[in-house]
Amino acid sequence: MIVPVILCGGSGTRLWPLSREAYPKQFYSLVEDVTLLQSTIKRLSGLPSCKTPLLVCNNQHRFLAAEQMRRIGLESPSILLEPMGRNTAPATACAALSLIQQEDDPVLFVLPADHIITDIQAFGQTVETGALLAEQGKLVTFGIIPTAPETGYGYIKASDRLDTDNPVFQVDRFVEKPDLDTAQDYIESGEYYWNSGMFMFKAGRYLEELEQFAPEILTACTAAHKKIVQDLDFLRLDAKAFAECPSDSVDYAIMEKTDSAVVVPLDAGWSDLGSWASLLELGPRDQDENVVLGDVVTKDVNNCYLRSESRLLTAVGVKDLIVVDSSDALLVVHKDRVQDVKAIVNQLKASGREESISHRKVYRPWGAYESIDVSERFRVKRITVKPGGVLSLQMHHHRAEHWIIVRGTARVTRGDEVLLLAEDQSTYIPLGVNHRLENPGVIPLELIEVQTGSYLGEDDITRLEDVYGR
Q: Judging by beta carbons within 10 Å of its beta carbon (0-12, 13-18, 19+), is residue 75 exposed, middle or buried?
């Protein structure tokens, strides 16, 4: 049997302003009706040899991942939490340490959460080939058969063919993202594949290779795993021990050094959605070769990706552009420069701009809130609480809050009082008073919150009780 290990830690900065650090692309529906993470899980569940996956994600995204798995029927998911990002080699090591205790040295299929595969049959056949090789002690990577001289991907050079029945090759070397001329040479040689970032090996073999080539990673991950703690549906690694772990990828730490690495070519309609140009290529085109999503009106526009999340977007007389309008940021970029979007995000981070990290709408385990208006002395939010959702019992030192219920029923704790409020009713939470909001109903609770005070930052919160362990 194969145990998928789905890595959910990426931030997808090249798909800004939609994908952000607090809500990255794997949690969005970009091509299908389901999110990229849900699509990955469904794709694997269709393979008879795959068991329930183990997700590896960071603490910030834990409730997003759990909720998305719940929505497709996985009520008790296995989610391993990294205290901080340390790249794919440590994440895979911790997954191997966890799973080798539960299974008799299982075959791990390590893959990102944000890829698209359109030919599921071809994908399944290639995975089965990889599993046979992994059972034989090989460390398998899957190389995408290239369709163009892509400069946004790393490449794998294949050498000797190892199987006369299946296209399986010894790995000669991994190479970094090339310039255009070099990429063209790679394509013409027929010896190179795009590096998919997907791997397959037995858990024990991977740990053996780590011990030989990256012992400091294995030591730190073993120490972090020994102090693992169960928290609701999550497995928390020890933060102090994990912080000592070097940051490295599976490619660099193991695959480039081992003599057991093999590459299996994959031709299954793969995309890593690494840029807006990928979505232009994959999206449904209109008669002018445009991909149009949301409230968009155009005239004489050709070969553009136009996406509006919240308001009317219009375009006249342009071509080859990517235009993405979110609630708080607008991106306009030529389709040939989409790889440079990451540089814009880096500039925003360097200047301390919140738009590099989160949207106006912020998701929480109990629901979400969205900033509607803000000034020096007030902030207005729209808050949605899921049925059964419970906010923490909390208080604020610098602000008071006014709550107006616009839909559903709210149970409000305010000091020693407990109030039940319906639509069109309101309450006032004075500064310094303990309070809690709950949704005891069966429909989402929606309310408008007006904050007033000298300081309105999200860090002005003292949690006294919290059912989510924050």
A: exposed
Cα–chain center distance at 331: 21
pLDDT in tens, 12-53: 889 999 999 989 999 999 888 899 999 999 999 888 889 989
pTM: 0.87
Q: Are 201 and 111 in contact (CB under 8 A)?
A: no
36: left (phi over 0), alpha (psi -120 to 50) or beta: alpha
Q: Where are the beta strands (DSSP E) in 126-205?
A: 139-144, 155-161, 169-175, 192-202
Please choose, from the candidates 55, 95, 110, the residue with its C-alpha nearest in 3D space to the C-alpha of residue 228.
95
Which CATH code of 3.20.20.100, 3.90.550.10, 3.40.190.10, 1.10.760.10 fits the domain covering 2-271? 3.90.550.10
Residues 6+ apart with CB under 8 A from 250: 88, 89, 92, 110, 199
What's CA 428's distance to the chain center, in Å?
A: 38
Return d(Cα 330, Cα 323) in angstroms, integer.
Answer: 7
Q: How far apart are CA 91 and CA 110, in angstroms?
A: 10
Residue showing tokens 């997954």: 95
Phi/psi-derived region of residue 284, left when phi > 0, alpha when psi is between -120 and 50, beta in every other case = beta
What is the bridge-based pairing of β-strands 78-82 and 234-236?
parallel
